[in-house]
Amino acid sequence: MLLTIDNVTKSWPGETAVPVLRGASLALAAGETLALTGESGSGKSTLLHLVAALDVFDSGEITIDGTALSGLDEAGRAALRRERVALVFQQFNLIPTLTVGQNLAFHARLAGRVDRDWIDRLTGRLGLGALIRRYPEQLSGGQQQRVAIGRALAMRPALLLADEPTGNLDEDSSDAVLDLMLELVAETGAALLLVTHSPRIAARLERRAHLAGGKIG
Amino acid sequence: MTGAAALALASHWRRHPLQLFTLLAGLALATALWSAVQAVNAEARAAYARAAEQLGAAGYDRLESRSGAFMDVAAYVALRRAGWQVTPVLEGRMRLGPDRVTVVGIDPLTHPSLPALDEAAGRVQPGELLGPRGLLLADAGTAARIRARPDLPPVVEVEQIPPDTIITDIGLAERLLGLPGRVSRLLILPDQPQGIPPLTEIAPALERIDAAARSDMARLTDSFQLNLTAFGLLSFAVGLFIVHGTTGLAFEQRRPVFRTLRALGLPARRLTVLALAEMVLFATLAGGAGLVLGYLVAAALLPGVAATLGGIYGVPAPGSLTLRPEWIAGGMGMSLAGALLAGAQALWRLRRLPILAAPGQHAWGLAAARTDLALGAGGLALIAAGGLAMVLLDGLIAGFALLAGLMLGAALLLPPILGLILRLPLPRRAGAPDDPLAEWFRADMRAQLPGLSLALMALLLALAANIGVGTMVASFRLTFTSWLDQRLVSELYVTARDDAQGAQIARWLRPRVDAVLPIRAVELRAAGQPVFVHGIIDHPVYRDNWPLLDAAPGAWERLARGEGVLISEQLARRSGKWTGARLALGPGWERIVLGVYADYGNPTGQAMVSMEDLLEHARNVPNRRFGIRVAPERVPELIGALRAAFDLPAGALIDQAALKARSLEIFERTFVITGALNILTLGVAGFAILTSLLTLWSMRLPQLAPLWALGITRRRLMRLEILRSVALAGLTAMLALPLGLVLARVLLSVINVEAFGWRLPMHLFPLDWLRLLLLALAAAAVAAAIPARRLTGVPPSDLLKVFANER
Question: How many angstroms separate the CA of residue A105 from the nearest CA in chain B?
């Protein structure tokens, strides 16, 4: 298995800790696509952040390609994000001071895996060829999300994590972006874990899992 | 509606207390430094006014010699005979102990009422002042020094006399000053008789000066006070940079609130008035705090100012600090004006804010380019205006206008220049790994420039002022010390109790030493200013050691023959008389200028004539001081022998090293205030960087979080944050260096010449620049480290909020 989530718990600290995940478990094979659904506040994004090593869990274990996340320090977690996992957020989170072309290549360059041909192909497939010298704030929401997807896939990750990637887009743009993402994921052979609250989008992926009461059903 | 809107606006400050503190602190600091300088200047002016009143010079028109020299008593007699009701005053300075005091001689029978005479009326009869021995009036401190000199007449203590001043009968003053038959000015009494002949008929060499004309003291210290005011303005401008930056940031952050309020029906005019009222409230609060701070700074600066004014210019030193209503009103006015000036742009944008326009319409790159272009054009225009002022105006005002244009123009040019530097391609070794972080780092620095530019401008101004003033002072010190080495050639200086003892000492010394050089001088008025005229004997020591800036052929030989005069550079510049011109030293005493010599550190003009020439025109010049040339190793032995033979007190024998130390001490005192204000300005600039980074911090987290998500550790991001601040400060410091050197050149070649009357060579001090650069880098690193350290402590949950979908 590429990704294994085994009985993971997470609580938000406070005077009385608020449990969010109460023993969530999941497995994902290389090249698989899975949609994780759930109500607002159910802990979908929290689980995604734990898998991305952006946050640490209280108990249980997450393993990515044989690496147990509980054994990693901050530098190790940063290296994992840099080299093996890629993220696509609802808010795009592009770097506003870099051009589209620089944003597209940025993660691959951080990982030390720049494949110019692949990036050029990606740019063409994502329809960003004419926008390469623009800055993110000069693009529409759909265009920005295409840049974010391109940035994530340019480094050929083993695992792509997407958190409501079409949440900020209208229905037409949303469908177009999702089509592209699924095509490119299939082309790279990456596994995809996509968080969404939309049954319509979830239905487009190979597998679906539902998070409720802190557990995956 | 208004109350609700005000509440919404105020809620921003509750959520951003640090920003509120920055705004108030910036405004308070600006007000404080400006008010402190104004308080010091007001005290100095009050001291001059008090002294003028105590000396009876206030309120009366006066007659003075057109040539600026002393007038002959014959002119006074002629005017009295013609019916003019005038009273003579003779004023000069004499040595009393280690320092000089001002002697004011009056005619007690005709002089208008004097506070000092009124106070002494119960204890002194007018006749006593006119008696054969005479009587001196002085304050307690001066009186004590007079009593230590048995050769002087008795003294009566009077409170209402400025320190270091003696009032006495004009006849006695003539004797004390060695100026028989001389008069400084004639006071024109009220109630002049009808039909008196005009002045041009009786005494055409005299001119009438209006009572309202400013006193000599005020004119003498003009340059000093203008310097202080310029520094105060610079500090004020640096403080306003902080305020402008903060109000601009608050505007950007509140833009959604403004739009919502407008959308909910609040008229644009009401919104602008509310924002204006908020600014006035802040200006009032910060102005009050600034005044308290300014009072404390002024109280700390005042002793230094008093030392400078008293020690260097010889004018009455300001006393204790008093709270003046006009000072409080001025400080509050400046705070209000400063807040409105700094916030004007935000208010203007608020007034024109459309309700529906989306924020961030302009592309980042394009907007930055347009701003750079506007700043560049504004900067060049200001520099050109400064240059034009130098061509069109005269004097100190022109010099300061040039400085203001240069400094502000360079500050405006800073962001576009930094932007250009950051766009330059980095040299990259072939085969070196591609570094995306370096690319991001440079792009991010360019993006942060608008937010930091005001703080960097403040840093540029403070560093350039430090380099400029530091270079000026250090160049001055170097020139001054080497000049002192040349000028103070005698190994020992002796001061006798009186002329008789002086003659005995000279006789005793002649067979025992290489040379005895009498130091005899009289204070006169020449070219409208006080001038010390020294008489020198014909001795090779002068021509070998006295550095002349300009000289006629055979100047020393002609001087020895009594054919001319050598004058100091400041006298030459102020009077416009250079080699070949003629200078009137008194009635019937006009000499050709044979040369000009440097006389650094002395605000009073100086001239040298042959000893015979001096004694012919000022017979009673004291003959009590001598410079002695002797082998240095014999100095201790000679001091012991002189003490044993003449019972001389310790202060009467000063060796060369001690005299140099005393001269350097006076020199250092001149720049004590400059140094203090320099450090304060740099401190404010450091504070500006810190506050900018702190206020920008809330906007910074969303910019850094994506990098963290892409695998850059928080510790590395923190290091990059500090490096960014240090790199920008370093680049600013590099640009401040040429600006500082230009500033130093203007100070040395324009301001010093106008203010003090001497032009100095410029020396460069790279080690001082390195020290300042390191200081700037350290300040930037500390300022960046304070907010950046939070990055390592930020819990991941806070960073994750940046990516949260429901944020």
Answer: 9
Task: Tell me which H or E stretch contains B700.
Answer: helix B672-709
- Which among A78, A96, A112 is the nearest to B713, CB-wise? A78
pLDDT single digits (tens) B402-449: 888 998 899 999 999 998 888 887 776 666 666 888 888 888 888 888
How many other CB atoms are found less than 10 A from the CB of residue A16?
7
Q: Are strands A33-38 and A191-195 parallel, antiparallel or unpaired?
A: parallel
The hierarchical CATH code for the domain A32-55+79-216 is: 3.40.50.300
Final residue belonging to a domain, choices B214, B244, B270: B214
Inside any domain, residue B313? no
For the cut 70, the answer to whether the pLDDT of residue B212 exceeds it is no
- Partners of residue B71 on adjacent β-strands: B183
- Report chain A residues touching chain B, CB-CB < 8 A: 12, 40, 45, 49, 52, 54-56, 74-75, 78-83, 87, 89-91, 93-98, 102, 105-107, 109-112, 114, 134-135, 137-138, 163-164, 167
Residue type, B6: A
Q: Could you say which of B433, B799, B803 has the minimum Cβ distance to residue A163?
A: B803
Task: Please answer whether residues B203 and B77 qualify as being in contact, where contact means their C-beta atoms are separated by less than 8 angstroms.
Answer: no
Cβ of A12 within 8 Å of Cβ of B706? The answer is: no
What is the strand order of the sheet B86-96 is part of?
Answer: B155-157, B136-138, B165-169, B99-106, B86-96, B185-188, B62-65, B206-209
| Integer Cα distance of B538 and A28 in angstroms | 108
Position with higher pLDDT, B664 vs B641:
B641
Token pair in block for residue B203:
């005494």
Q: How far apart are CA A215 and CA A43, in angstroms?
A: 9
Q: Which of B152, B187, B214 is the last residue of a domain?
A: B214
Considering its fold, how many domains does chain B have in total?
Answer: 2
Is the CB of residue B249 less than 8 Å from the CB of residue B26? no
Residue A29 clears pLDDT 90, i.e. is over it: yes
Asked if B804 is an interface residue toward chain A (Cβ–Cβ < 8 A), one would say yes
Does residue B376 surpass a pLDDT of 80? yes
- In 3D space, the residue among B410, B376, B452, B386 whose CA is nearest the CA of residue B736 turns out to be B410
Most confident of B165-179, B304-318, B646-660: B165-179
- Is B323 at the interface with chain A, CB within 8 A? no
Cβ neighbours for B497, distance < 8 A, ≥ 6 positions apart: B149, B151, B624, B648, B652
Angle among Cα B687, B688, B692 to the nearest 5 degrees reads: 115
pLDDT, average across residues A109-123: 89
Is B121 inside a domain boundary?
Answer: yes
Domain hosting B592: range is 492-630
Is B191 part of the contact surface with chain A (CB cutoff 8 Å)?
no
Most A CBs within 10 Å: which of B700, B710, B718, B791, as the mutation test of the A interface?
B710
pLDDT of A51 above 90: yes
Interface probe, candidates A10, A45, A81, A97, chain B, greatest B C-beta count within 10 A: A97
pLDDT (tens digit per residue) in B276-299: 899 899 989 999 999 999 888 888
Please state, in angstroms and as integers, the Cα–Cα distance from residue B136 to each residue in A63, B117, B139, B425, following that order: 101, 11, 10, 79
Q: pLDDT digit string (tens) for B321-348?
A: 777 788 888 888 888 888 888 788 778 8
